[in-house]
Amino acid sequence: MLVHGFTLLDLCAVSCTQIMRYALQHMEERGELKAQPKQRRWWLLLLVLPYLGLCFPQMYARATPALWGFPFFYWYQFAWVIAASALLGVVYWKFKE
Fold first, then answer.
1. How big is the chain by its Cα radius of gyration, in Å?
2. How many structural domains comprise the chain?
3. pTM of the full predicted structure?
4. Number of helices and strands (H, E) in the chain?
5. Which residue windows are transmembrane per the record (predicted)?
6. C-alpha distance from residue 59 to each of 5, 52, 72, 76, 86 (Å)
7. Which DSSP category does 6 fall into?
8. N or C: the chain end with fewer CB closer than 10 Å?
9. Do 53 and 87 fall within a single domain?
């Protein structure tokens, strides 16, 4: 669908850009944007662990050991859902300080 020569996707991109620019401008005015120390960046590496843990299904695509009747393949992935949530919480907490 064209609106004044722009597609809906173009209009959305422009709108998102303008919204982000507006938000960043007001965050700078209120002093909410702070330079992140390099020490905090290391905490971001924790977010790589779920990716690495699930990136290679050849390592966990098996039935044993089963946990409460669930094959390893299923409960391993579900354990990473819980672990990833915990890791996100830790990283958020460290960045919020």
1. 21
2. 2
3. 0.56
4. 4, 2
5. 44-61, 73-93
6. 51, 11, 11, 11, 23
7. E
8. C
9. yes
